[in-house]
Every structure is written in C-alpha cells, then in structure tokens.
Design goal:
- The chain is α+β, with helices and mostly antiparallel strands.
- The strands form 5 sheets. Strands 1, 2, 3, 4, 5 and 6 form a 6-stranded antiparallel sheet that branches.
- Among the domains are: about 90 residues, Beta-Lactamase, CATH 3.30.450.20; about 40 residues; about 100 residues, PAS domain (Beta-Lactamase), CATH 3.30.450; about 160 residues, 2-Layer Sandwich (Alpha-Beta Plaits), CATH 3.30.70.270.
- β4 and β5 form a beta hairpin.
- The longest helix has about 70 residues.
C-alpha cells in the first residue's frame, strides 16, 4: 500500500546506504592511516638508531685506532732492540714516547714472555706482577700478531672498569718476547655515549662479539660486563655486519627498537636502542584523533541528512554553515598572516644573510640582516649582478650556477670589509619545483670571523707547554724539520741537545709534585737564558728538554753551550723556601747536512744523554757528524 512517500522512503534508503559506504570508507582510511603511521614511526626509529650506531661505531673505531697505533709502534720499537735486555729502564721510554705521541689519556704496559709485568708508561708499579692468566696475555702469547681486543674486565692493578688491547711482541728472529697492552677506561666511552643521546629513551652500548657489554649509557655501572645473549638470541654468533631488531632490554622496561653496527676491523659492535613506548603513544594519540575526526564526520553527515529531510530547516542551516565557514576562513587568514609575520621576524633576527634567488638570478626575498644596509625589500626583483656588483658577482657566479643546476653548495670565503679581513660561510640550497626542475635557490651567508680567530688561537695554544710556556713536542718537530731543511740548503751545521734533570724523581718525592713543577719552570728559565734568542728551547715531557742550535760555524760551539748550561745549573734552586742542588746531563748531536729525519736526530741525542747518565751524570756526551 502506497502512502505517497515512496520518493521520501527511496531517498532515505539511498541516504542510509550512502552513510554505510561512507562509514566503511572512513574506517578503511583510519586503518590505512594507522598502519602507515606505524610503519613511518618504525622506519624513523630504525633510521635514527642505525645512523647513530654507525656514527658511534666510527667514533669508537677511531678511539681504538688511536690506542692500537702506539701498541704497534711500541712492539716494533722493542723488536728493534735486538739482544738488549728488556729492562724497565730500556722499555719505559719507548712506551712513554708511543703513548705521548698519540694520546696521554691511556698508558701502556709491557709483559715479558713469562707473563710477568715489566714496566708501565705511567709509572704504575707492575714489575713482577703476574699477568700470565689474563686473556690479553694468553691469547697473543699463543699465536698471532694482530691486535687483541679483550672483554670487559676489572684492571688487575688499577682496579678500574676497563677493556684491554694488546699485541704480541717478537724478536727479529720470531722469538716471543712478551706482550704490550693498553687498558681503555670504559667509563670514558660511556661518557661519549651519554653526550650523544638525542632523547631520554635512547641507549647506546658497546659490546663484544661474544655479547658482553663494555660500556653503556645510561646505566653504565649496572650494565658493565652484562651478557646480552638473550636480547640478540635470534642471531648466530658472530653477529651480522649490521642490522635492526626489536627486543626487550634487561636494563630498561618495555619493548625497544635496536640497531647495531660493527666497530671497524675490531670484534666489537655498537648498539643503539630507543623505546617503542613513545612510538606507541604517538600512534595511540593519532588513532584517537583520527577516530574523533571519523566520529565528527559521521555526526556531520547524519545531521546533514536530517537537514536534507527537513526542508523547512534547510536554508537556515545552510546559512549557519556558510557563516561558520566564513568565520573559519577569516580565522585561518588571520592565523596565516600571523605565521608569516613570525617567520619574517625570525628570519630578520637571524645572525645571517638569508635570501631567495630565482632561476633568472633575481632576488625574490631577503631578510633585514642581509648586511648591505639597504631597506627591507630594496633588492626585490634585482639581479645578483646588480646587488653584488660585477667584481663580487664574478667570484660567486660559479657557485650560484652549481646551486641552479641542483647542487648543494657550502663554501668559505675571505673578504676585506673596509680595512678588516672577514671570513664568511656561504650555503646555497636548491629549490626544486613540483616538476623536478630547479626554481631557484636559498642563500644563507654567515660571518664566521670570530670562529676562525678562536680556531687560530686554539692552534697556537696547542703548541705551547702549559707549565713552562716553552714550545712543546709538536712545535719542536715542526721547527726541527724546517731547520734540517735549511741545514741541507746552506750546508751550515746544527746541533740538537737532549737534557733532563738528574734524579728528578727524588725532587718530586722530597718536595712533592708542586715542588717538581717549580723546579721544571726554573730549569726551563735557566736553559732559555743560556742560549741565543734565535735558538729553540722546548719541553718534550716530564723533565725532558731539547735545545736546537742553528748556524754553528764549529761543532765545538755546541759543546761550549752544553758546558754553559751545566754551569748555569750550579747555583741552588730555591723551591718553596728550600735550597736544592739540581744538576743536568746533556746529550749533544751535531747533525750532518744530509740528515732529514727529526725523530732519528732526537733518538741519537737521547742516546748521547743516556751515555752521559751512565758516565756519572752532571756532564755532557757529544756525537759529531751524526747521520741516520
């Protein structure tokens, strides 16, 4: 039976089917959006942890390489001793020289073929201590000459949390002479990791291929030496080169995303993890927001349908919706204008010159800090040649053309502003349009003059001994290399004097390290006053000093300087109110014009110093016409 509302009922059925289709579509979109967000968040977590793991692995590899190089050089130096007895007095200078030449934050230890400690470069008393059962001795002693990287351990003498690097030492004939080892303090690695954490949930750990933790941030103390086999149980040993996985951590609650990378050629890995709780929280928030949006859309659709069925209300509701849309547009326009003002204010207050130049090399934007003094917008529409001038444009056009060809450009430039030399850093970033073509590029110019000046000052400070104010080892080697070059060109001899304070340990033991420092400063002062201003007086390390004499007409002049220095030490030293007799021994080498190796010359002078010591101290020993 028909009641005359067939059209209304048909429209209502169609409207209901439309609501069902719209609901299914929106639910599908919600599911797709949630899955996409999860994959994106997981990919972002994998990217962050993978990049961090690679960066930290490279840093740790550099640290270990800095320790391994002195180990290798010490092993070669001991090998070169031939049949000389491996006594502490002979071995220690080699260890000390190797460690000082690289990084004073670690020390070296030599263990003889029977596993007994001989000497440590930092003066630690290890003589006679048995290391025979320590892996860093047993494994290199058994076979192989490659570097051995040990598991996390407690130092046998130092009692600190460390891991050891060691190398086998052989004679020239292949006879096993012992092991040279270096402990690396694990806490230092953990401190580097701590400073590299970019979010609270991030953890960074260094572990062996046997899956034992050496250093971790955070929770270094709790995790040191821990076995993490349960965390990476899905992988065979050794671990693959690199990868990512999800697992629970024994140190932090909740599921975590991990990435790991190998540490160069060493049997170590760096693992970086982030908590997935924050990822899931973001997904939950996104899901709730999307669900609320879906509900809002469905409600609006139902209301729209109800309004469509109620013709009486239609025009009034449409007018209300139009008023709401107009208000939203006005509000959006106001917010957009406010955002543009804030962005321009930020750009105008940047300590840099920011501009945008299109493909025709015309300025389309520049901030108030462009440095030209022109009013804001004065360069708009002008070409780069008009703004920069012909001379500066010719210098910059090559880099501008690179940017317009799609290349990222970052260069440093020196300019004279007035009478002052200034340093600038220019960065050009291409702007790709939707069609893939370069529409222009963004330019940012930063004045880095102050940074350059600080770098130059730091470079100068790094070449001066902080205690005595004398040139240090690095400065000595550079100037000695230049002096040898001049000697070869002119044929005029030069001399190298190697000195130290006789029985300096007794000065330290009786007057303390502060008294020893006073003695070193006074010793350096007397050395400087005993030579010409053109001569070089440098402090190598400890109580070891070197004097470089150039322009010698007769070799005997170097000997006279050595005797003058010995005489200059005769007056007592006044150290913290106490008079102390201090003497010195001097090793002198007269370099041949053919000599070209500064280190060989220093070793020869050191050998002459040793002869002077052996002859009774407070004297000098000289070798003329040295040639390596």
């Amino acid at each position: 039976m028909s009641d005359g509302h067939e059209g209304y009922y048909g429209f209502r059925r169609k409207l209901a089917l439309g609501y069902l289709a719209l609901g299914a579509l929106l639910i599908g979109l919600l599911v797709w959006k949630t899955v996409s967000n999860y994959r994106a968040e997981r990919a972002a977590a994998v990217s962050v942890t993978a990049h961090s793991a690679s960066a930290m692995a490279a840093h740790v590899a550099e640290l270990i390489e800095a320790v391994d190089q002195p180990l290798e050089s010490s092993a070669r130096a001991i090998k070169a001793l031939g049949n000389l007895p491996l006594t502490p007095e002979i071995v220690k200078p080699m260890l000390a020289a190797s460690s000082l030449a690289s990084d004073s934050r670690f020390w070296l230890l030599f263990i003889d073929a029977k596993g007994r400690g001989v000497v440590a470069s930092n003066g630690l008393n290890v003589r006679g201590v048995s290391f025979a059962e320590r892996p860093y001795f047993k494994i290199p002693a058994a076979a192989g000459t490659d570097v051995f990287v040990g598991a996390p351990d407690i130092g046998f003498v130092s009692k600190r949390r460390v891991f050891f690097l060691s190398r086998r030492v052989e004679s020239k004939s292949g006879e096993f002479l012992g092991v040279v080892a270096a402990p690396i303090v694990a806490r230092r690695v953990a401190n580097v990791f701590e400073s590299a954490r970019v979010e609270p949930s991030m953890s960074i750990a260094l572990a062996t291929q046997e899956r034992r933790i050496i250093a971790r941030a955070p929770l270094f103390e709790e995790s040191f030496g821990a076995d993490i086999s349960s965390v990476v149980s899905a992988f065979a040993s050794p671990l693959p080169a690199s990868g990512s996985f999800a697992a629970t951590s024994p140190f932090q609650s909740g599921l975590r995303m991990f990435s790991y990378a190998p540490v160069g050629k060493y049997p170590l890995v760096v693992a970086v993890g982030v908590g997935r709780d924050s990822l899931l929280a973001r997904l939950r928030d996104d899901f709730i927001a999307a669900a609320l949006s879906l509900a809002a859309v469905l409600i609006v659709a139902l209301l729209s349908g109800r309004l469509a069925l109620r013709q009486y209300w239609r025009m009034e509701l449409i007018e209300a919706e139009l008023r709401e849309v107009i208000a939203d547009l006005a509000n959006a326009k106001s917010q957009l204008a406010g955002s543009e003002r804030r962005i321009r204010m930020i750009a105008d207050n940047l300590p840099a010159r920011v501009s945008y130049i299109n493909a025709d090399e015309r300025f389309m934007y520049h901030n108030a800090g462009d440095g030209s003094g022109a009013p804001l917008g004065a360069h708009m529409g002008k070409t780069a040649r008009e703004v920069y001038g012909a001379e500066l444009y010719d210098q910059l056009k090559g880099d501008m053309h690179k940017a317009l060809s799609g290349e990222q450009v970052c260069v440093e430039q020196t300019c004279v502003v007035g009478v002052e030399e200034r340093f600038f850093k220019r960065q050009y970033t291409p702007d790709f349009g939707t069609d893939g073509r370069v529409a222009g590029f963004y330019s940012m110019v930063t004045d880095i003059t102050d940074l350059k000046l600080v770098q130059h000052r730091l470079s100068a400070i790094a070449r001066v001994d902080s205690l005595t104010g004398l040139p240090n080892r690095a400065e000595l080697l550079d100037r000695l290399d230049n002096a040898l070059a001049r000697c070869r060109r002119t044929g005029v001899s030069l001399a190298c004097l190697y000195l130290d304070i006789d029985r300096f340990k007794e000065v330290n033991d009786s007057l303390g390290h502060s008294g020893g420092d006073v003695a070193l400063v006074e010793f350096g002062r007397r050395l400087s006053s005993s030579v010409r201003e053109s001569d070089l007086v440098a402090r190598l390390a400890g109580d070891e000093f070197v004097i470089l004499l150039e322009g010698l007409e007769q070799p005997a002049e170097a000997e006279r300087v050595a005797f003058k220095i010995i005489a200059a030490m005769a007056p007592p030293f006044h150290i913290e109110g106490i008079e102390r007799q201090v003497t010195t021994s001097v090793g002198v080498v007269i370099a041949s014009p053919l000599e070209d190796d500064p280190r060989s010359l220093l070793r020869a002078a050191d050998a002459e110093l040793y002869r002077a010591k052996k002859a009774g101290r407070n004297r000098m020993s000289c070798h003329r016409g040295f040639k390596a």
